[in-house]
Design brief:
Order of helices and strands: HEEEEHEEEE
Number of helices: 2
CATH class: Alpha Beta
CATH topology: STM4215-like
Distance between the termini: 26 Å
Helix content: 10-25%
Largest sheet: 8 strands, mixed
Shape: elongated
Strand content: 35-45%
Number of domains: 1
Oligomer: single chain
CATH architecture: 2-Layer Sandwich
Length: 137
C-alpha cells in the first residue's frame, strides 16, 4: 500500500515500469533491501519536481521531473538488458495522473556501463535519466 503522501507521478512512473512483463518484480523505488535484492534489478530515484510558472502571470503549477535509474546486473549483459527494457517501457510514454496533463517521458541521458567492485561478486550498472513535465489538467 502506498503512503498517503506519496506523489501520484511517482506511483504512475513505477507502475508503468513494473507493467513490463520481465521488469515486474525487478523495479524498486530506490535501492532494494539486501534481503529483497534479486540477481538483477532497476533502482528508480525520483526527487522533488521543479515548480515552474506555467504562464507569465500564473502560479508555479507546472512540475518538471528528473528521474535517475540504475539498471544493475551481475554481468554487463544483464545491466544492458535491464536498461534497454526500461528505456523501451518509459521513453515516449505519457503517464496518466489524475488532475494533471503529463507530457511524454524523454530519455536525455544514458551513461556508460560501470562496474561496482564493492559487493562480492561485483555488480555492473547503467545510469539513465528520464524527464517529464506535468501541467494542471
Amino acid at each position: 500500500m502506498a503512503d498517503a503522501g506519496e506523489d501520484p507521478h511517482v506511483l504512475a512512473l513505477l507502475a508503468r515500469a513494473r507493467a513490463h512483463r520481465t521488469l515486474a518484480g525487478h523495479v524498486f523505488d530506490g535501492p532494494p533491501a539486501n534481503d529483497d535484492r534479486p540477481g538483477w534489478y532497476v533502482a528508480v530515484y525520483v526527487g522533488a519536481p521543479s515548480e515552474v510558472q506555467h504562464r507569465y502571470t500564473g502560479d508555479h503549477s507546472q512540475l518538471e521531473y528528473t528521474v535517475t535509474t540504475h539498471s544493475v546486473g551481475t554481468s554487463p549483459a544483464q545491466a544492458r538488458s535491464a536498461s534497454r527494457m526500461l528505456r523501451g517501457q518509459l521513453t515516449d510514454h505519457v503517464l496518466d495522473v489524475p488532475g494533471r496533463h503529463c507530457h511524454s517521458i524523454t530519455h536525455p541521458v544514458g551513461r556508460p556501463l560501470e562496474k561496482d567492485t564493492d559487493p562480492n561478486p561485483p555488480l555492473w550498472f547503467i545510469t539513465d535519466q528520464f524527464d517529464f513535465v506535468s501541467d494542471p489538467a
